[in-house]
Amino acid sequence: MIVENRLADDLNEILERSDKPLRTLVNSHVLVTGGTGFVGTWFIEALLWARSNFRGIGRVSVVSRDPAKFLTHNPHLVEHAALRFVVGDIRALDLSALPDPDFVLHTATAASAALNDGDPDEMLDVIVGGQNRLFGEIARFARPRVLFTSSGAVYGPQPEGLSHFPEDYLSAQLDRDEKSAYHEGKRAAEMICLDATSSGVADVVLARLFAFVGPHLPTDTHFAMGNFIRDAMRGGPIVLNGDGTTVRSYQYASDMTSWLMALLVDGAPGRAYNVGSDQAMNMREIATSVARVAGPDVKVDIRGTQQPGQPVDRYVPSVERVTNELGLKNSIDFDDAVRRTLNWHRA
């Protein structure tokens, strides 16, 4: 049975924008950890789509605790000949049965506020313990290229007067709060990556991810954009629990995927690159834009009240490095990103 791929238009655009790295990846053995998450799902979708279109001969091995979940959400990939799963937790990873991978996308960390707040020790162990286990296993292979999906959270709070985080921002202090496990774990994981590169285990590129919008983004967790999309799909109102002054920027998933492809193949080992949009908007503007795109009857309900003198919570990257070094740019504007996401859900 042929199952339609509802991301076909997006995937074709990725093929056009990422032709050079994809021509390499589709004829290689690519290992993906955390394949059932938002980032991993998009990457695998695009890679397998390109393999079919370019008639590649490579294979894709995916580390996942729940392959059935991935295939339930992506039935068009159930019988794909190039796809193979390695079942298990990243902390107990065993890659002894795999042939040498040429490339590794390491994204096996749950971006879960609930886990971070409820069990910070578990969150830290998943990130750091999983990182150590992965590179222990990779040491058996012939120095693959690895792209580690770190986070913009490693920078800490964005200070007033800094409009965009550059990759060389170094003034963030260590946070001793027990609920800081996610971003402190990512910092430690980056150090493990740099050590793996300097010791010759792998050539590791760091991708510091920010905020995204697109199909497959969860609509029932702590992601504000996912919740806005959910509220809009229900006809509104779009509920904003804060005062609307928080500043964020959102990159569409297909642009994110194109950037990850390029970084995996052409990024400089040991170097960090921000992945996201540099187009800043406050949450009031974001919620209002989602409502406008969703339809004239969708309203916005702002429930918070701005406190005098309270600093603005800002989280926006500079993307000059990826533009200057790799020629990468965002091609999907915010309204179009929201429109595509809504249409995917409505389909």
What does this molecule look like?
This protein has one domain (8-213, 251-278, 317-333): Rossmann fold. It is 40% helix and 15% strand. It has helices at 8-17, 19-25, 38-54, 67-73, 113-118, 120-138, 181-198, 224-233, 253-266, 283-294, 320-326, 334-346, and strands at 29-33, 59-64, 83-87, 103-106, 145-151, 203-209, 212-213, 238-240, 247-248, 251-252, 272-275, 281-282, 300-302. Strands 3-2-1-4-5-6-11 form a seven-stranded parallel β-sheet, sandwiched between helices. α6 (120-138) runs parallel beside α7 and α8 packs parallel to α10. The longest helix is centred in the middle third of the chain and has 19 residues, at 120-138. The chain is globular and about 55 Å long. The chain starts with 7 loop residues before the first helix and ends with a helix.
What count of helical segments does DSSP give? 12
Query: Largest sheet at a glance?
Result: 7 strands, parallel
Mean pLDDT: 92
For CATH, the homologous superfamily is named as NAD(P)-binding Rossmann-like Domain
What is CATH's topology name? Rossmann fold
Under the CATH scheme, which class?
Alpha Beta
SSE run: HHEHEHEEHHEHEEHEEEHEEHEHH
List the helices and strands and how they pair.
Blueprint: H1 8-17, H2 19-25, E1 29-33, H3 38-54, E2 59-64, H4 67-73, E3 83-87, E4 103-106, H5 113-118, H6 120-138, E5 145-151, H7 181-198, E6 203-209, E7 212-213, H8 224-233, E8 238-240, E9 247-248, E10 251-252, H9 253-266, E11 272-275, E12 281-282, H10 283-294, E13 300-302, H11 320-326, H12 334-346
Parallel strand pairs: 1-2, 1-4, 2-3, 4-5, 5-6, 6-11, 7-10, 8-13
Antiparallel strand pairs: 9-12
